[in-house]
Amino acid sequence: MVHGVIAWSYLPALVAVGAALLVAYLGFRRSTTTGEVGSRSSSAIPRLVGGLFGAAVRRGTPPGLPERFGRMGAAEFEAEISGLLRALGYAVRPTPPSSIHDVDLILETTGRRVAVQLKRWNAPVGDRSVYGLFAGRIHHSTDEAWLITTSRFTPKAVRLASTTGVRLVDGAELAGWLEDRSNAEVERGS
Predict the structure, then answer these.
(1) Which of 44, 50, 54, 144 has the least CB density, counted as fewest CB within 10 Å?
(2) Domains of the chain, with CATH numbers?
């Protein structure tokens, strides 16, 4: 074998991996082209892996989050999170549904603007979402970017977020925000 050239015996494995990645990518692109939060709520990779190995993708609502999140549609979930962010003191403006820059909401408060992407997912959110939101932050000229999910993040997503400045809010932190809002409402009612 010439140095730097892949041995022919590896070619079938490389072709199979490449085909699997292409199928996953095309499935991901199809699920993200509609511009709706809910349309982006299922990753092609877990479906592909589940199909290849017979594994079932976990369904339901992650611990700590209300069960109703698992039954919500895209518009309901966006409205729920918008209401939560308003209760936290932000002015909330949705982006147009056809936005291709992975930003669902723009938050404004005291001279700061935040680009927000929402992921009502059961599977971990990966680095592609972080990268897309980072590009969306630049496109929308915001000061910050937050990626909010009902799930959790992959290690690659966490590493990329740390270098791009994207704030990651996982399901556990989101549940904490909801609890804080509920406690504040109880205190105001007393």
Answers:
(1) 54
(2) 8-189 (3.40.1350.10)
